[in-house]
């Protein structure tokens, strides 16, 4: 399909579909919108391979604000995304996140707690005795504190959230095109059109880069460097014979995390830095489970001594190499190319707030609800990283 659209969104994952939905539902926007997605089966999209959890426990106030809006959106998702009165069921559960700390991590846990309290996050610092009383299945050996989210944290069906945005955007008149974006016509400080692999061309008013782990390639089409790489993250599903009542998403000081998933559990961990390249490969690395995750799991939860892995998968973090935070809005050299990238493992929960913010930027020329300017490209140019220390 050749033609002209006021807004062309490259990538139809949760971010692209969220931007499309918020734009199309803004009464102040009367323009045309196209979402170009190269693979509508979403086989390797991060939105389809996510752990789909939401937390309020960040170290950056702007991230906290995004998650505060995120949870309110998820709780009332049918009010926003239902089509023909069909409710949207995301299976949202809110058992909290539990960050555990040894002496080495206690200061940062307390510092983050102060930041979170200042942003009205419903979070409690617990002593080892309080942790043991609340979670009798947990070994508190070596721990000095735990930070438990008391509300607003948990998990949901992220794939259905993406499909909900997509379905609603379509119902609101957004055009979805199946094609690979392979180039852009840039003249001076503007992108005039987007080139597709089928030889067609879309003229555009604004382009949004929502290409997930492939965002750097798309930015290069306009001659802009983007420090986003594709980092493989493996998730393992396992059975445990004993129930773990009220189990939250637990982040062990080793970096290993786990949470219930239906009657089973899932877990993961960041790989060692020397095994974390930019990659196209999604082969599951089973030795990471055997060598790193299982020993940490069994040490933290004695019932995990006898677990059985039943499934596994790998997906890409769209990893911001500089400060592990989103990169939103334009680069000063190209006014009409907006970045929506670099979420580094927390994009699903941020999709509602980011989609709304980018729609405001397009329609009103600035943020109206949450101020997302801290995530602007300018910070990278100024060497002012917005470091997020709560990265899983
Ligand atoms: C294992 C794992 C666990 C995670 N856990 C969580 C979590 O618990 N909570 C959370 O909030 N987040 C989590 N995330 C992160 C979250 O899933 C992502 O941040 C989010 O899905 C990113 O959405 P996106 O739309 O930017 O990217 P994607 O979903 O990857 O979508 C980008 C789309 O762009 C398309 N595309 C790329 N290039 C082109 C092109 N040139 N032309 C056309 N189309 C193109 C791709 O095909 C893709 O469908 C996790 C991610 C992984 C991998």
UniProtKB/TrEMBL annotation:
Transmembrane segments: 7-24
The organism's place on the tree of life at top rank: Bacteria
Pfam families in the record: DAO (PF01266)
GO cellular component, one term: cytoplasm
FAD dependent oxidoreductase domain location: 6-361
Alphabetized GO MF terms: oxidoreductase activity
GO biological process, alphabetically ordered: mitochondrial respiratory chain complex I assembly
Protein name: FAD-binding oxidoreductase
Species in which this protein is naturally found: Azospirillum cavernae
């Amino acid at each position: 399909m050749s033609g002209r659209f006021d807004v062309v969104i490259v990538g139809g994952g949760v971010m692209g579909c969220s931007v499309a939905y918020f734009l199309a539902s803004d009464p102040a926007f009367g323009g045309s919108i196209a979402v170009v997605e190269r693979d509508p089966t979403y086989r390797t999209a991060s939105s389809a391979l996510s752990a789909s959890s939401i937390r309020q426990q960040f170290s950056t106030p702007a991230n906290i604000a995004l998650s505060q809006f995120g949870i309110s959106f998820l709780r009332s998702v049918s009010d926003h995304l239902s089509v023909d009165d069909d409710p949207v069921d995301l299976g949202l559960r809110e058992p909290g996140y539990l960050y555990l700390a040894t002496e080495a991590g206690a200061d940062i846990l307390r510092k983050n707690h102060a930041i979170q309290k200042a942003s009205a996050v419903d979070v409690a610092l617990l002593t080892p005795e309080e942790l043991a009383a609340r979670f009798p299945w947990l070994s508190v050996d070596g721990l000095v504190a735990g930070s438990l989210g008391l509300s607003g944290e948990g998990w949901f069906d992220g794939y259905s959230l993406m499909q909900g945005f997509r379905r609603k955007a379509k119902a609101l008149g957004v055009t979805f095109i199946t094609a690979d974006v392979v180039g852009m016509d840039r003249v001076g400080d503007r992108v005039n059109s987007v080139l597709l692999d089928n030889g067609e061309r879309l003229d555009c008013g604004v382009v949004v880069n929502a290409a997930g782990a492939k965002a750097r390639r798309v930015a290069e089409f306009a001659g802009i460097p983007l420090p986003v790489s594709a980092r493989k993250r493996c998730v393992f599903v396992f059975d445990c014979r004993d129930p773990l009542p009220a189990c939250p998403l637990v982040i062990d000081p080793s970096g290993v995390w786990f949470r219930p998933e239906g009657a089973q559990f899932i877990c993961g961990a960041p790989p060692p830095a020397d095994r974390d390249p930019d990659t196209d490969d999604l082969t599951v690395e089973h030795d990471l489970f055997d060598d790193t995750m299982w020993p940490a799991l069994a040490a933290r939860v004695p019932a995990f001594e006898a677990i059985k892995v039943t499934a596994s998968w790998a997906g890409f973090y769209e990893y911001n190499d500089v400060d592990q935070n989103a990169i939103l809005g334009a680069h000063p050299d190209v006014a009409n190319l907006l970045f929506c990238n670099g979420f580094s493992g927390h994009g699903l929960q941020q999709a509602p707030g980011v989609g709304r913010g980018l729609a405001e930027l397009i329609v009103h020329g600035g943020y109206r609800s949450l101020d997302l300017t801290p995530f602007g490209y300018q910070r990278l140019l100024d060497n002012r990283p917005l470091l997020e220390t709560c990265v899983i």
